[in-house]
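JOB MANIFEST
job_type = single_chain_structure
chain_count = 1
residues = 63
[input]
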Amino acid sequence: MAVGWLSPLNHAAYHMHNFGYDLLPRLWQSCLLFVLLIGLCQALCARVVRRYPFQFTGGEDDT
């Protein structure tokens, strides 16, 4: 059922053909879930990047 839910083809053609899956969530529910997951990934990436010790080498020295 998860493969049918995640398939873009199933979302595009769900109203015409249900592919045997009758209890799939609505398109807006799927989009909301994906937006939340993307937001979570962005927050985790921002947290990790803030803690990363960047060391830039090369270029001009100000001394």
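[summary]
DSSP finds three helices and no strands in the chain.
The radius of gyration is 22 Å.
exit_status = 0
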